[in-house]
Amino acid sequence: MSDIVLKTESLGISFGGLKAVQGLDLEIKKGQLYGLVGPNGAGKTTVFNMITGVYKPTTGSFWLDGENLTGKTQETINHKGIARTFQNIRLFNNMTVIRNVMVGLHNQPEFKCGLFSSIFRLPAHFKTEKAMRARAKEILEVVGLLEERNNLSCNLPYGKQRKLEIARALATNPKLLCLDEPAAGMNPHETADLMEIVRHIRDQFDVTILLIEHDMKFVSGLCDEITVLNFGTVLAQGVPEKALNDPAVVKAYIGG
Amino acid sequence: MAGLKNIKWKKYVSYVVLAAATVILAVLSFAGALKSSDIYLLEKVAISIMLAVSLSMVVGFLGELSLGHAGFMCIGAYLGGKTAVLLEPVLGEFPTLFVALILGGIIAAVFGIVIGLPALRLRGDYLAIVTLAFGEIVRSVFMNSSDESFGGSLGLDTPRFDKEYLFIIALVLVLGCLVVTQNLIHSKHGRAITSIRDNEIAAKATGINVTKYKLIVFCVSSFFAGVAGVLYSYSNYTVQSANFDYNYSIEILVMVVLGGMGSINGSIIAAALITFLDVKLQTILTGNLAVLQDLFYALILILLVIYNNAPALRGFREKYNISKLFARFKKHNPATVKDDEAKWDRVPTKIKMDEVLSVDVQVTSPYTPDKSPKEEK
Amino acid sequence: MKLIETLINGLSMGSTYAMIALGYTMVYGIAKMLNFAHGDIIMVGGYMIFVTMSATGNPILGLLAAVVFCVILGVAIEKVAYKPLRGASPLAVLITAIGVSYLLQSTAQIIFGTASKMVQVADLGNWNIAGLTIPIYTLVTLGCSMVIMTVLTLFVKYTKTGRAMIAVSEDKGAAQLMGINVNKIIMITFAIGSALAAFAGFFMLMKSPSLTNTLGAMPGIKAFTAAVIGGIGSIPGAMLGGILMGVVEAISLTIPAVAPYTDAIEFIILIIILLVRPTGILGKKRREKV
């Protein structure tokens, strides 16, 4: 059992009378690249919002590495090891690229530095700043943004902003990295590049990745296993080829 | 890194200028070259700078709107003044001043935490109205206090610190305030604070303890407002609660806004300039003419905000940018020019009504092209 | 007996607050901005009544002139100061509104001076019934504002313009796509709000005839507080909040021990209500899309 990173059991949420997600059972194994797909409004982002603490689930629970995190705050869940990116990019726009990543490093134990040391500029402050900067550069190099580190993040092109979000999430040293439509708005070339980066991240950072994506090629080319959602319920689960050819899935997408 | 150096230069320039000004003015005052009206003006300027710098932490760096800064100052002024009255015969002048400063600051800071707690639940305009209400409550409580405790509606008589060098102490304290504020902002903690301003949801998702940092900012900011209040009580003969109404809070806010959001140096310049004009114009314009000054401020404020923020004027602004005039004096380095400084049109009071939806799911037919139609800018 | 008198007084005060609060809440709901200068529109209305009455002596004419002038002023302020900032950060708009508030106050002071003006709108006397002494102006205020608020509610609910207002407050972009002229709706909202402010100014002068350039400042803040208590953006909320505020104020003023703290009590109620229900009593819960 220990190789299961994220487990959800009949996870569900309703807004008013609307059941946005119901009865979701997931088991994501360590090191897996797991896809969450489904038509618009299927409740994919809502699943992300539940497992990252933005919404409290109304039914069911979820566990990270066997620890029940249901109903915890966003901060706690992040500290425990789930990091995410956003469908509508949410960067710290008035900060440079490298500082965005350094905010991600904020809570890492090796970069601890108290308020007092910072205000009175004790040696710990300078040591931490230097170490954080070095680490941030390493992470930026992985996503290919090292050259842009001193630009304001709002001046980056769209595709690079998405990569920066990944870098920032990665900086929090997560066990599970949740990517919400990482390839949205990218051209085929950038998408291919991104696929490479995602694989590389999984291998180098020893992290499990859960991603939402519409691009079927991206999903089937990258994911080990997927879950297809529609109207908040699971249509199919399994390896991409099989799940995507499931009659219920075909019906949901093509209509009928 | 070149960028880092540039930031430091910007940071130190305020220290150097302030320290130099303090030394020069101190020499002048001991040489007897300063009139007592000049000294009073300097004290006022120092108080205003401290208020503006401390408020700019909340508004410019945390991105929350506080309209109750005068309330914290009021607490500092009354408690510092009272401490001075009670302790001066026992401890003597300097220890009393020291105790009063610490006490006024700390109690204001405690109230900062108390008002910071609702700040965690409320956002944007709601927080503004709660802080405004807080300021008015503080004022009303002191106004109605008994004559023996805080002087009631007559105000609290304070032993005016009748030494000419109070302004030097004040300027040194301003320097201290500046060191603390700048060091805090330019550290990992400051980064966490600005991340909350830029995107609170992302900050939470990145594991930043939003609650903790909001409280820290409110606490530090109100501490210095309290210290400024104590200085005020020492610089005047009485402390009148009527002087700390919301108009005063707004005047401090105006200093911060005119100085430019997220720019501490800007706040300092704006605070000094406005206070200087205030005091100078007060002697020139008397009677009903005094109001011309308010009219002038109001017009400047409106025109400046519209000029800086109107979406329609964006092209015009970029063409005739003031900072461009100065651009040739320094090498252009996009990394450092604006880091930590927020442009006005990007400082959100944490509410973007057009983006909030009551429910985050929409039921769509399975035919819909599977692309998110809504993209945030 | 005393309690009934106090209650009627409170209701009349509250309905004045409610009128002002409606202006705040409608503008907030539709233009998404805190119109800090709204309170000063009341003051301008007061001076308009003063000017007209010194010329003609007719209070009704004064009221009409005030309504017309305030509507023009409100719309002009919106066009000149707020409209260029549509789409800018809420903070920028708020600061501009503060600037406008100062501008109105100082302009009034330049024209009319600092000394307070006496405006005896109408001496209606008292009504003695069953041992109660009820000033007639309270009943007039109460009656008039009830009628105005009913008309307003019906207007918003049943007319095309009113429904368009609701649509704009829900989603400006979508409303525009449905063919609603958003600029026109915002203009109408400012016009209605300013007209209500003029009425409120009239009622306030009926209560106490002294008029200064800060007449509207404190009532404006209190009415805004009332709107927030009721749930900003909600029309019934503003009415409820205003009435609540007036009744609390009236009761508190009759108890000698707490009377000096009346303002503080009202603001403490605000803080408590916001802590318990951050969206106000009747406010809708809104969720930010993540």
Structure description:
The complex is a heterotrimer of chains A (256), B (377) and C (290). Chain A has 256 residues and is α/β, with parallel strands linked by helices. Chain A folds into 2 domains: 4-81 and 174-254, Rossmann fold (3-Layer(aba) Sandwich), CATH 3.40.50; 97-164, no CATH class. Chain A has helices at residues 44-51, 74-80, 97-104, 115-119, 123-143, 158-171, 188-205, 216-222, 240-244, 247-254; strands at 4-15, 18-29, 33-37, 59-64, 67-68, 82-84, 176-180, 208-212, 225-230, 233-238. Chain B has 377 residues and is an all-alpha fold. Chain B has helices at 2-30, 36-62, 69-91, 93-121, 124-143, 147-150, 166-185, 188-198, 200-205, 210-235, 246-259, 264-284, 291-309, 314-319, 322-327, 334-337; strands at residues 156-157, 238-239, 356-357. A two-stranded antiparallel sheet of chain B has the order 1-2. Residues 1-6, 326-338 and 348-377 of chain B have low confidence and may be disordered. In chain C, helix 1 (2-31) runs antiparallel to helix 10, helix 2 (38-56) runs parallel beside helix 4 (90-112) and helix 2 (38-56) packs across helix 9. In chain C, a hairpin with a 2-residue loop joins strand 2 (126-129) and strand 3 (132-135). Chain C is built from 11 helices and 5 strands; from the N terminus they run H-H-H-H-E-E-E-H-H-H-H-E-H-H-H-E. The longest helix of chain C is centred in the N-terminal third of the chain and has 30 residues, at 2-31. Chain C has helices spanning 2-31, 38-56, 59-82, 90-112, 136-158, 160-170, 172-177, 182-207, 217-230, 235-254, 262-276; strands spanning 117-118, 126-129, 132-135, 210-211, 287-288. In chain C, the strands form 2 sheets. Chain C has a two-stranded antiparallel ribbon. Chain C has a two-stranded antiparallel sheet with strand order 2-3. Classes of the chains: A alpha/beta (256), B mainly alpha (377), C mainly alpha (290). The interface between A and B is large, with 67 and 55 residues. Strand 3 (356-357) of chain B pairs antiparallel with strand 5 (287-288) of chain C, so a sheet runs across the interface.
Task: Provide tags for this entry.
heterotrimer; B: 377 residues; mainly alpha; ABC transporter involved in vitamin B12 uptake, BtuC; two-stranded antiparallel sheet; globular; disordered N terminus; disordered C terminus; C: mainly alpha; two-stranded antiparallel ribbon
